[in-house]
Design goal:
This protein has six helices and two strands. The protein is mainly alpha-helical and about 120 residues long. The chain has a two-stranded parallel ribbon.
């Protein structure tokens, strides 16, 4: 028998590429390890990060300035960074942990980065 998380991930994977929210998929994967994970709550947390960053990004008058402002807000203000002290920590691979701890490995940080950038209107794919 498949878990709820597995069924939701399978459902998500049947969508067209344009309809797939990569963060949602990564959270359903994490829900296999964290059965009580509230996926909608973590998607809302990504929305909240985007809401915080959006006004800063809007100050940029060129695409390059907007990306630079996004990077400053994402890495310096919001504090996202690579986990250099414990790269092999399994929590680095679960998106909920990366959102909570603001640290992860390149692939999970990239998911958060791209999804937050998309939410503020930047194309980061």
């Amino acid at each position: 028998m498949h878990s709820h998380a597995t069924l939701r991930f399978a459902e998500l994977s049947r969508r067209s590429d344009r309809e797939i929210d990569v963060a949602e998929g990564a959270l359903w994967i994490a829900a296999e390890q964290y059965p009580d994970l509230d996926v909608d709550l973590y998607l809302a947390r990504l929305d909240a990060v985007a809401d915080t960053i959006r006004p800063q990004v809007a100050r940029g008058s060129t695409p390059l300035e907007r990306v630079e402002l996004f990077n400053q807000a994402f890495f310096e203000v919001e504090g996202f960074s690579g986990n250099q002290a414990a790269f092999d920590d399994p929590r680095n691979s679960f998106l909920n942990e990366v959102i909570d701890r603001r640290t992860g490995i390149p692939i999970t940080l990239a998911i958060v980065y791209v999804e937050v950038a998309r939410r503020v209107g930047l194309r980061a794919s």
